[in-house]
Amino acid sequence: MDGCTISGLAFIVIQATIHCPQPAVPDAARFCQTVEAPIRYSRTDTAETRAQLRSLNAKWRAVCAPETAGR
């Protein structure tokens, strides 16, 4: 294969990747795949980042946290 053929094939693959619909994954499932456990605070976090982390952790507990016995 010459360079033009390879470039053409690469172009087709890139275009197909861009224009083909992505598999439908619900937002909650995507969030649970990304955030596997509550996010821990850091000493260098500002008040704003701590508020954002509290919000994300609350969302994780509501949507992704495994049910614990005794609740």
In words, what does this structure look like?
With 71 residues, the protein is mostly helical. It has a domain at 24-71. The chain is built from three helices and no strands.
- How confident is the prediction overall: mean pLDDT? 76
Order of helices and strands: HHH
> Taking Cα atoms only, what radius of gyration do you get, to the nearest Å?
21 Å
- Tell me the total number of β-strands: 0
Helical percentage:
55-70%
Cα(first) to Cα(last) distance is: 64 Å
- Give the oligomeric state of the chains in this entry, treating copies of one chain as homo and distinct chains as hetero: single chain
Number of DSSP helices?
3
Largest sheet: none
SSE blueprint and pairings:
Layout (H helix, E strand, L loop, with lengths): L2 H17 L7 H8 L12 H17 L8
Tags for this entry?
71 residues; mainly alpha; 3 helices; elongated
Summarize the structure.
By secondary structure, the protein is mainly α. It has helices spanning 3-19, 27-34, 47-63.
